[in-house]
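Sequence in, structure out. First:
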Amino acid sequence: MNENLTIQVFEQENLRIGDRGFQRRHWELLARWAEKQEEGYLQIGVQGVRFHQWVGVVEVEDLVIEILPKVERFRGADTADAVHEKWRRILLRLLGVAGYLDVRSLDEATLGTQRWTILDVLFAQFLDSVEILIREGLVKRYRSVLRNRGAVKGRIDHAANLRENAFHAERICTVAFEYDRLNLPNLILKAGVETCARYAPAVYSRNRARGTGLYFSDWPSYAVSQADFDALRFDRKNERYHKALNLARLILGRQNPDIARGRERVFSLLFDMNDLWEAAIVSRLRRECTPRAGCTLRRQQAKVFWRSDMGTPRTIRPDIVIEPGDGKKVIVDTKWKTLSPPVPGDQDLRQIFAYDVLWDADDGYLLYPKVEGSENAGGAFKVVVNGSELRCSVLFAEVDPASWGEESLLASLCSRHAEGSGDNTAARPGCPD
């Protein structure tokens, strides 16, 4: 299926020159690429690279590097291939519940195409969406076009007419409205298909993209920018473009035109695991909260906690604020890191303390990924604010979305985990059972 060599590594892992097909030319291209990036996706060393919390795919010429999340330790009976495959599937499921990939086709993608990389799955879903739109018929819009015509149509552009038709009295340059498919959403689709044809690791995906690109063969090229995506507006005519354009934003937002020259190319599709873990937990809690009467969930709700004499404010925003429905508040701050024993760091405790005070919350939780042997733990701050004891509990959640149906995370968040305080996991009033 793939002509490119694919290797799999984990976040926070080192990859040295000479390991598993990673050569010096790959290292040099990654070094040039990393130097141009605003984010510290990876750290370039003398004889290799070290990956950080960013997961996904980096394609360097003929080498595809899949960067996978991982919070568990290797067991003696586990093989490297089995562990890589397990966490690749978990990453795909997390991307699905976070809204980056289509959850409905995820099972087929993870089980039926095991040799495909995450990049192949993304490109396949994008091409599926584009082909559906083409079969349904692409949206047409009116646009203003300056053209040298054989008859007057619209408004005459005298300056262009003098410049172009000084010796052609039979022609005339006019500006007129035309109703066609050359509009921004369709041009973005064309650019995405061209990117698939160039960067898809699987030969099948590249050939499929080239076949789809024949539909746009006589269209002008267009360099898509982030501003173009921000300018998109949806109505009843192009509402069906949502999925394809969201995937196109992922694909086109990761291009590196300064590096892409001939065979020397670097293409990245990377996600910050802190943001991905937060988005996945928000999606899970939102599904559990929706059927509960009066239960609301807000994400990244900001409040001012300091204002300078010059009037410049500083804000803080917890990851999740839950109101179960009885006027109480629960603050949740997600953390993508292992915690053993279940005692959070000082910085995390100070952060949740500030959230509890500003939001007048009844409970605060630091939510970590669950690993073997991790146990939920409660705790309270020594300071009493407004006559109330401020609490901060440590909670662990399953990483694999396939296991989420086995427990209710919302019910756990609405219970106190205060070992030795006399109210062990007793359900709070007004919280769902």
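Second:
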Amino acid sequence: MAYYMTQHSSNHSNITLPLLIDYVDALLPSLTTQVGATSSQPNDNAEVLWVLQDKDAQLAIGSQLNSHVANQSHSSSTADMQKLQISTLSKLFHQPVPERYTLACFWLPTLSLELLQQYIPLLMRYRDLYAAHVLIALDDTVDLKAYGFTPFDVLNEQPLEDKVINKAKSASSDSATLWQFNLYDYKQLPNWLNADYWANPENWGKNRW
């Protein structure tokens, strides 16, 4: 079945890289807790995967991401170094054994629609299997609703300090529309899947089964 990505008409504020980095910092603690609460296995997976368009983007942005994580660790006496991995679309696409992550963040504001089509299977794999939460920043002419992602305004989703917001808005940076998918809240649990509704509990102890 063929899917088509077209321009979406909903208004959502654009996001810059500095604002997205700060949003990831604010989001990650709650995600780590959520993943730990829903998994019976220890959370030994790497926390954050940043995916950039190509090697040029990795050279330009990779050092900025690593420096930010290092600064965050040094500024808090109780915080551990955030487990961070940086990759490119091509490298990730050809990775034979993918890892699992708490958060996969794709920063692709200049990726063309034609090239993006080649990587849709990759996005689907991380949406369904390899990340508990996925963020994808793309040109605002691209619509990912057909793939289960939802666009949203970071400033309305997560409380951030005013100085962070003002700094991010004024930064000279590419901007993009942000899409998200959360494995643990994308669908509400129906009543019939709740254990309280199984096997007619009102008859427990009354009848012989």
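Remark: Residues 1-11, 40-44, 77-81 have pLDDT under 50 and may be disordered.
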